[in-house]
Amino acid sequence: xxxxxxxxxxxxxxxxxxxxxxxxxxxxxxxxxxxxxxxxxxxxxxxxxxxxxxxxxxxxxxxxxxxxxxxxxxxxxxxxxxxxxxxxxxxxxxxxxxxxxxxxxxxxxxxxxxxxxxxxxxxxxxxxxxxxxxxxxxxxxxxxxxxxxxxxxxxxxxxxxxxxxxxxxxxxxxxxxxxxxxxxxxxxxxxxxxxxxxxxxxxxxxxxxxxxxxxxxxxxxxxxxxxxxxxxxxxxxxxxxxxxxxxxxxxxxxxxxxxxxxxxxxxxxxxxxxxxxxxxxxxxxxxxxxxxxxxxxxxxxxxxx
Length: 305
Hints:
Number of strands: 12
Distance between the termini: 101 Å
Structural class: alpha+beta
Number of domains: 2
Strand content: 15-25%
CATH architecture of the largest domain: Ribbon
Oligomer: single chain
CATH class of the largest domain: Mainly Beta
């Protein structure tokens, strides 16, 4: 028997395995080798999986990336195309109700088109309905609010409003004629969209809308803080066209109210503005028939929507 060969074989089988990178030498058993290599193999395999994304990134990473992509897409769509807007008050009843989510078409006025009489618009009331800049919001809170409002889960900012356009630049808007109707450029308007039982306005007013601005009112006139409440302030209650965020075209929630907002024909017979309609009081000048610095408060406070 070749005893030297046997000794040599035993020496090879009992030799310790080389230590893993950065580790201590291990005993020769299989279980010890497995335990010794476990941590650095796991690190190496995790790194390889991350580098191999998307094929080997794992379900968790794929889910995170997919969720991020969805959020970015929603934010882009709500910023440039269509944005959900949660109705916070009853100022637009019965057209819009508290809790409705309307879809605001942000492309409606992007290509040269202008808001028209009868349009339901969402606008930023800073400088018209809100004279003072709102206090700065915590950046984290602002980000959360923006993300939640982008999908209609949160009420809009305090300076965002939704109202109906009643007068555009150059229009003379007065209230009311002997039948109690609103008049635009001397033409009486039958406002079929008003909440049943509501009057066009309980207090008279007479206004000429400056060019590039809008006169807006809520459909629930007795519960709407709108242009009438700001007659005595800079701008006379009118809203700059460039503050309009978009046109409310659809109700997207709740399910039982999903529908498009029909365009009203109430203003179809209104003539274009001109000197034939007689003098009126421009905003910021002499008060109209209301006889003071505005026409009183119609409810709400802050953003009444």
